[in-house]
Design a protein that fits this description.
There is one protein chain. The chain contains 20 helices and no strands. It has 496 residues and is mainly α. The chain folds into 3 domains: 13-110, no CATH class; 122-167 and 320-460, no CATH class; 174-318, no CATH class. α2 runs antiparallel to α3 and α11 (217-237) runs antiparallel to α12 (246-261). The termini are far apart.
């Protein structure tokens, strides 16, 4: 059997199929053999079977990351919409942490003999380290012994920012985005099917929200919106006619996933994303306008076909509701005002990371007492109340400066760097908007990674321009030297 498989592979290689197809076939064959062998050995033992498959997949992913460290960052991105199903492993806080550690080791090993910081000490690095040290200096005990080891958490995030600045060069972004979008599509389909929105409405049983394969509905909705943004970049850069119908189908799948989460913030973020993406497509020239119009038409028709009218009516009625329910804006307004009051009492250093919920018990009483222990659902107020004005400025400082660098790169009008800078700036804008409804952005892996990406794009572009100027100067110098040297040459004597 092995001989036959080897013969087939040789024939495939002689036909000069794409190496990616051959690699995918080889990986699939290894996984299939592993699954069969694990089933044979672990027949009747489900734990052994699952462990064997996990080890096989983990070994393959680890091998790929060792030779291609950017895949490690791509897997970190892709883990976000799948966070709810990721297994825990011994000696690591999570599977993603273990893969991140492997990515770091692989990168350092490949850089031996070369500098680890190609772009030197950047402002984002300094401000981010300042934020981490501020937490350590003001609340050292919470940094180590809070509900998690915050020093370790933020240390990992800073490393992710640094690795992204060094690894995610323009040629690596498309691969990372594809991996992320695939993970989003899987979680989106699961979310829509699990919510059973159409069935629920037809039976008059109300709504059942789904988090897909992520940790909660609102997080999944936002990750799917980012998937729509990345899919738009891949769609715009696509030159393969065979993929022309794939990208609109991906839009529909991701949008249905957002529908399945029944997230008001996700719904608003989706609308905002489509507005920015239409502007992004129009920057590509008049020939891109027809494509984006067709895509929007496909998405709208797909949404109208799969989603009943009652859903859109519900979203219209509840987006700005002031009902004092658990998710109503009335209660969130109370929590936001409480957060401001906490900050006013501790303006410089705050009350400590992740301490608002416990501190709020001292501020809420009477009919509002039931809100004690809940988050503010507002990143900016949470950051102010927990880290004070110093921590607030340090954190928002590196975010704003990252957007500034992306803006400069976008304005450069470079075919390679500017489209990427535009897409990541849209992602940053969506994060700034998400800050009005989410409380945990300060330890978002994607957000910290985006800070490193802004560095990579800006200073990668400047290095590219510098190389072009040096090359042009060398050519001019060679031309000048030839021009000066020509009259001094002895002319040939043809009259002898």
């Amino acid at each position: 059997m092995i001989l036959k498989v080897s013969t087939v592979l040789q024939k495939l290689q002689r036909k000069q199929l794409p190496q990616s197809w051959i690699l995918a076939f080889q990986i699939g064959f290894i996984l299939a053999v592993t699954a069969w062998f694990a089933w044979w050995l672990g027949n009747g033992n489900e734990l052994f079977f699952n462990t064997s498959i996990l080890m096989a997949v983990g070994t393959l992913v680890a091998a790929v990351i060792w030779f291609f460290p950017h895949v490690g960052l791509a897997v970190t991105m892709a883990s976000l919409p799948l966070q709810g199903i990721l297994p825990t492993i011994p000696f690591a806080s999570s599977l993603v942490s273990a893969l991140g550690g492997l990515t770091l080791i692989a990168f350092v090993f490949q850089r031996k003999g070369r500098p680890l910081f190609n772009f030197g000490t950047r402002i984002q690095f300094v401000l981010a380290i300042g934020f981490i040290l501020w937490q350590l200096l003001t609340f050292p005990e919470l940094s180590y012994y809070g509900n998690r080891n915050w020093l370790f958490t933020f240390g990992q995030l800073w490393i992710i920012m640094w690795l992204a600045s060094e690894i995610l060069t323009p040629g690596k972004h498309a691969a990372a985005m594809r991996i992320y979008v695939i993970a989003c599509v899987i979680s989106a389909i699961y979310a829509f099917m699990n919510a059973e929105i159409v069935a629920e409405f037809s039976e008059g049983a109300g709504l059942e929200r789904s988090a897909g394969l992520a940790e909660n509905q609102n997080s999944l909705a936002f990750f799917l919106v980012l998937g729509i943004v990345f899919n738009a970049y891949l769609h715009r850069q696509n030159t393969n006619a065979g993929m022309a119908l794939v990208y609109p189908a991906v839009y529909v799948a991701l949008l249905l996933g957002v529908v399945g989460t029944i997230s008001r913030a996700g719904f608003l973020s989706t609308g905002m994303a489509f507005i920015f993406l239409m502007l992004f497509w129009m920057r590509g020239g008049p020939e891109k306008v027809r494509t984006i119009l067709i895509t929007v038409l496909v998405v709208v028709v797909g949404a109208m076909y799969f989603v009943p009218d009652e859903y859109w009516l519900l979203m219209e009625q509840t987006i700005f509701t002031e009902e004092r329910t658990e998710t109503g804006y009335g209660n969130r307004e109370t929590l936001i005002l409480t957060g401001i009051e906490v900050w006013q009492d501790h303006p410089v250093i705050g009350v400590g990371i992740d301490q608002f919920r416990s501190t709020s018990r001292e501020y809420l009483s009477g009919p509002e007492k039931h809100l004690a222990g809940k988050v503010t659902h507002n990143f900016y107020i949470t950051l102010l109340a927990e880290t004070g004005i110093i921590g607030f400025l340090l954190f928002l400082g590196w975010m704003i400066y990252s957007v500034y660098e992306l803006y400069l790169t976008m304005r450069a009008d470079d075919e390679e760097y500017s489209p990427l800078a535009t897409i990541w700036m849209i992602a940053f804008i969506l994060y700034f908007f998400r800050g009005n409804t989410a409380s945990t952005m300060h330890y978002s892996k994607m957000l910290w990674m985006m800070g490193g990406i802004a560095i990579a794009l800006r200073h990668g572009y400047l290095a590219k321009i510098n190389d072009e100027l040096v090359s042009e100067a060398d050519e001019q110098q060679q031309t000048t030297s030839h021009t000066v040297a020509a009259p001094t040459q002895t002319p040939a004597r043809v009259y002898d």
